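Sample 1 of the test manifest.
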Amino acid sequence: ETGVTQTPRHLVMGMTNKKSLKCEQHLGHNAMYWYKQSAKKPLELMFVYNFKEQTENNSVPSRFSPECPNSSHLFLHLHTLQPEDSALYLCASSEDPGQGNYGYTFGSGTRLTVV
Amino acid sequence: AQSVTQLDSQVPVFEEAPVELRCNYSSSVSVYLFWYVQYPNQGLQLLLKYLSGSTLVKGINGFEAEFNKSQTSFHLRKPSVHISDTAEYFCAVSYLTGNQFYFGTGTSLTVIP
């Protein structure tokens, strides 16, 4: 385990389903992120939370809905997804959201397949 | 605009041979530079980072990288690879302020026995 735990590891869902991805960190970090990783494409930043407040939404479709109830937990709620949303969804955290010299700590990801 | 280019999408190399994975970036301001490794079915793990000071940075698992400001490059090297080094490697940059990272498309390193 890397310090950032993501559940579930694998998820298969139909286009009409509603599901949620969970991310948890107990590193004392103040920033948390959702990334989408598709084959042969750069990692796509989806959402950024600093001190529980959403500070970035990179034009993500509304069928993805993030939630950050506290600095240790981050959720990604999914509904009416499309097959092209199938990807590895990675959660990450970092110490100080205001400084770029802190690396990210990544979770192992959730492999999502939309059928 | 910020961009990161990893010139090789796949690099096959024989075991115990040296390897270099290339990374170039474009930025009008100073940046921090990072290399991450992703083993199969896992998240990304930090290999090393350049913040300031010596341009040669040593990381985990025997990897090192050299920052070249004039060529805007941050190539990753290892003098002798092992089978266990087979993985995807990502170069990334971030600004001195702010917490957004910009990742390259990755280089798949395959070590051949």
